[in-house]
Amino acid sequence: MAPLTYAEAIASGIRNTILFPFLRLQEETELLRIRRVQFDEIAARADSAAAIAGRLQGLEQENARLRAILGLRARMPVRHVAAEVLHQTQQTEGTAIIVSAGEQDGVRRWAPVVSLGGLVGSVQAVDRNTATVHTWTHPDFGVAVTFLNDSVVGLVGPRFGDGLTMMLELREVAYVGDIPPGTPVYTSGLGGVYPRGIRVGRIRSVLDDRVGWSRSFWLEPAVHPAAVSHVLILLAEGGDLSSAFEER
Amino acid sequence: MNGERSGLKVGAVLFALVVMHFTVRPLLGSDRIAPDFLLLALMFFAIRSRPSKAAVAGFTVGILADALSPVAFGAGALAHTVVGYLQAWGKAVFFPDNLLVTTGFLLAGAWVRNFLVLLAGGQMRGAELFWALTAWSVGQAVTTTFAGLLVLLAFRRWFKIGIIQ
User: Fold this and answer.
1) Residue A21, helix vs strand vs coil
2) pLDDT class for A2, splitting at 50, 70, 90?
3) How far apart are CA B127 and CA B133, in angstroms?
4) Which helix (H) or strand (E) holds A157?
5) From the centroid of its chain, how far is CA B120?
6) If DSSP states are collapsed to H, E and C, what string results for chain B?
7) B1 — contact with chain A (CB < 8 Å)?
8) Are A117 and A200 in contact (CB under 8 A)?
9) Which of A198, B93, B115, B164 is most buried, judged by most C-beta within 10 A?
10) Vertex B139, ends B39 and A85: CA angle to 5°?
């Protein structure tokens, strides 16, 4: 097990003792919600589809999301484990989330965490049943990125965007001509934490232009941590995940 | 005997709030603005306690909250200790049985907790901190207060708080 700081060790101890039954309860509630969705779907099939179509919209969305996660799992070329996001209390949430998989599932520190759309973050601390994940909104987050054809290489970090949302910033990319908005950006595999090919976001607009030298871009994140309910934690190091996240 | 029974009843409500925090809250939408039942349990406990006791309870709840949001460990403990102490102290000084004052008390308690967590946590700066304080924290304070008033209305006799005037 990776060494924990004192704070992480205390937090982990509390989660594994006093809070353990409550976190299990929370996990069970989440599973119950999923089962309810499945049950409602079965019940809906038995009923008149037209009459209940309106009410089922939300459930269908949830169901589609779960199916999509299953699809992503099938496409994932490296060993991984699925986990639920456990809900939190304080306003610092979003920069770190707790997920329902830990040491006993094979999770290790620095393991990359992805969701349906792409990169969520990496595991910061692991205990027996849960893991703390620093998401890309954390101030310390950074990842080396590229386009799939390796035409551009740069570093991405979080930056507070317009309105109330966190965005990503692709920093100081060497001048290589026009990069059209909407171009997807993927992890490059450099740096040793994230394997190549995880979708990070999409070019939105130019943020800063140092004429003739470099440019920075706003990136539309592939995943918003607040909207994530299920994640996949990668257990194997390295590899190329382009096939799982490449746009078809 | 009566006091003991009343204490047990209130204890049961507080425990129910703790359980709701882990079962009902995840179903209530965004974590940023969903009501914080743990904080509510602390504030209700503080209303009935001495400041020293409320501060200890605040520290305990804060440490539990920190274990769930470990990005700024200790910030929650500090914030909840201060809020617990101030609620208990404020009750003795300002707390007439009045719906408006009770509402203000819960609202202020929830917002001050978020303010202290954000400030002591030091994870957010600039515009992000501004929006967290003015939008998300206020939103969570409002939903927490609303949930608190529902609990008070349902169990006002057990809490011995007159909120009708």
Assistant:
1) helix
2) very low
3) 10
4) strand A153-160
5) 18
6) CHHHHHHHHHHHHHHHHHHHHHHCHHHCCCCCCCCCHHHHHHHHHHHCCCHHHHHHHHHHHHHHHHHHCHHHCCHHHHHHHHHHHHHHHHHHHHCCCCHHHHHHHHHHHHHHHHHHHHHHHCCCCHHHHHHHHHHHHHHHHHHHHHHHHHHHHHCHHHHCCCCCC
7) no
8) no
9) A198
10) 65
How close A183 comes to chain B (CA, Å)?
26
CB B127 within 8 A of CB B149: no
pLDDT digits 0-9 by tens, A154-195: 888 888 776 667 888 888 787 766 788 888 899 988 888 898
What 3-state class would DSSP assign to A27?
helix
Q: Is-contact A77 A243, C-beta < 8 A?
A: yes
Angle at CA of residue A95, ends A99 and A183, nearest 5°: 100
Say whether B131 and A93 touch across the interface (CB within 8 A): no
Cβ–Cβ of A89/B21 closer than 8 Å?
yes
Q: Cβ separation of A19 and B21 shorter than 8 Å? A: no
Q: Is 0.90 exceeded by the ipTM?
A: no
A1: tokens are 């097990």
Q: Which residues contact A220 (CB under 8 A, 6 or more apart)?
A: A167, A168, A201, A202, A203, A204
Among B59, B50, B97, CA closest to B78 = B59
DSSP code of A35? H
Query: Which is more confidently placed, A174 or A90?
Result: A174
> Regarding predicted confidence, which is higher, A149 or A248?
A149
Residues in chain B where the model's pLDDT stays below 70: 1-3, 70, 95-97, 160-165
